[in-house]
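Minutes, project check-in

Agenda point 3 was the complex the collaborators sent over. CS summarized: two entities, 537 residues total, and the question is how they sit relative to each other. Sequences were read into the notes so everyone works from the same version.
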Amino acid sequence: MTDARVKNRRAAMRRFRPSRLPLFIASLWTAVRLTTPDSFATGTPAGTIISNYATVAYTMEGTPRTRNSNVTTLVVDDKVSLTLNAADAANVTITPGGRAYMTYTLTNTGNAPHDFTFSSAVTGIPDLLPASGPTFYADAAGTIPLPTDPNTGSLPYISSLAPDSGRTVYMFITAPAQLTDGQTITYIVTSETYQPANLGVSNPPLKSSAQAAVDATANKNANLMTRYVVLADSHGNGGDADRDGKYAVVAKDGNGIIIGFKSHSATVSVVKSVTVADRLGSSQPISGGTLRYALSVSAKGTGTAMGVVIADPIPANTTYTAGTLKLNGSTLSDAVDSDAGDVSGTTAGTVTVRLGDMTSASPPQIITFDVKID
Amino acid sequence: MKKTLAIVMATLLLIPALATAQKGGVELTSRAEVEVVRKNEKGEEVLRRISAAKANVAPGDTVIYTITYVNNGDQPATNVDINNPVPEHMLYLDKSAEGAETRIDFSVDKGRSYGPIARLTVRTDAGKEKPATPADITHIRWTLKKPLPAGGKGSVSYRAKVK
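CS then shared the predicted structure for the full assembly.
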């Protein structure tokens, strides 16, 4: 409590000293003030009672008189309002079989706490279903899944989100292995409002609570202090309606293009050629002649091929010529050691060269070695 | 929950205090209503007023407060001032105060001083004076321009929006 407030409170107490009852009221109001935020970005809390009365002052037969009117009261209804924002501004990279997430922020723009479920639907190419997911998590590491409610078909949800509060959730998928380079999996994500604390059967979504609204009207006519649920939400870009308790969103980039999980993969290709060099200068592969194999390895696609390893068995009826293994013209020792290649070390009878990560920007890697025809 | 209970109690405690005023003389009746769009028998959309207590009232909605006055005494009342504090959680709507044959003044300092809105000022947090806005209004006062004769009646009104 600030000094100014202490002062105000003391002043209020002094003013009301003659009577204990108003002092009681004044301290109640003080208590109310202390538990209430000073500004309501999303409005007066649901259930707040607003009272109004007027006073008249006049003179009659030379005597000044005052008089109060009756007090009118109304109760502030439960304004259901939410927004769901897709936070990504560009496609999220995913590798075939890999896991990635998109980020969404839900904000309760109503004036009462509510529960909010999340659901998602694939848009675009129907074949592009994830291998698993989407699964909603509370953290970007994807270790704390949101709780799910069996009564809503196991939808994940956030419970009792306070008015004017936001929560960021992370939608993870595991991409199908057959996803090809450049394909994008896109989603509509929808959040729906439920009454707090109870989801599902015992507490249907607010949009389908037509009977609840009828009951509320009856209750309100019987008891004017009943608070209604008023659906006041707007719609997102995902095709939901105004005032339906839902907000659906499709992630888009700055140019309005729909974004999602975009596959970035690379395909490695190997082109193998052979030249014959025999002692007599003939190009016929005859016994005792030498074959020089050349492998050109390159990657294409928009992604990165991680840890490319080329393993090429030495052909039958030939013998590897020691000391002839080269990568891009530089000799590699035949032993397993710090250089990139070996012969019969990693795998018997096989030339093995570790090329590391490759992209389409990598120059072709040329592997050569000689064998002698038995 | 604690808050709602506190307000209910405060309201309940206030009502008996207000009801102890003397009989006769000038009496006031306050009414809170909201405007809703309804269809009439011809299917046309018409604006109707219903009791705010029975209507949907959510943040951003406008409530119309009407105060009717009647002189139930057998003598005229002079210097008649009707004063309505703008309720907590409500914002007075600019130019909404009405009352035939009245002068309307406003207070932005909880009723200590009154004047036309254009002449009122408030202090900023930094202590600087600046012109008051309708949102600063705490009280509305209607002063009847003429004495109210015995049996005379009328009404004044204003609109406010739920914060």
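Noted in discussion: The helical segments of chain B are 2-19.
Follow-up: revisit at the next meeting once the mutant set is ready.
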